[in-house]
Amino acid sequence: MDAEPLHRRIARDIERRIASGDWAPGFRIPTEAELTVEYGCARMTVSRAVSELAARGLVVRRRKVGTVVAHPPVHSSALVAIPDIQAEVQARGLAYSHRLMGRIVRPASADEAELGARVIELETLHLADGLPFAMEHRLISLTATPEAEAADFSAEPAGGWLLARAPWTEAEHRISAVGADRQTAEALGLEAGATCLRLERRTWRDGQGVTRVWQMFPGAAYDLVARFSPRKDQG
Question: In what residue span(s) does the HTH gntR-type domain sit (predicted)?
C-alpha cells in the first residue's frame, strides 16, 4: 500500500485538532519552525502542509501574528446544480482532457470515517483546449464503490466515472473564494495567492459516503449560476 506523503499527514493532524475543537478559531498554531521540530522534517514539508490548509480556508496566515485557525465563514444554503467538469467544458464548446497527477489507496482518516475504511485519493488537472481549467483533489470510498480500485482514472475522469456507476442520493456543496497555494498555482499557471473559486462537494448514497472532492478554478475563468423557483407559500 502506498504511504501517505508526510506533508499530507501533517495537514491532516492539524485539521483533526481544528475539527475536534482543541484549536479553536483565532488560535495561533505552532510556527513552521516548531512544527519542523515536532515532525522531524524539512521546513519545506511543513510549509506545504500549512499552505494546503490555508488554500482550503482552514487557517489564515497573518503578518507579525503567525498562522491562526480561521473563523467559519458565514454562508447560506441553496439548491445549486454543479455539473461534472467534463460536461461543463464541453458545454462551452471546448475540447476536454485531463491529466492524473497522483493516485494512492490508503486507510481513511478519522475525519473521513463517513467514507468507510479505505479510500482512493486522486489529484487531477482538468484542461480545456489544452489549457488548465481546474485542479481537483478527490477521495472515493472503496466501501461504496469497491470497483473503483481497479478503475483507470488516467483514461476516464473520476467525476464522470462516479456519475455513471455510483449515483448519489444526497449531496452537499460549499463554495468559497481562496488564494491558490504554490502547488495549485503552478498547476493552473497562476501566481501564488491568486484568487480562485473553490468548490467542495460531498455525496452520499443511502447514508454511505461516496466521495469528497475539492475543485479549484481560476477566479476569472469560472462563474456559478443558480436557478431558483419560489415556494408555493411565498407571495
Answer: 4-72
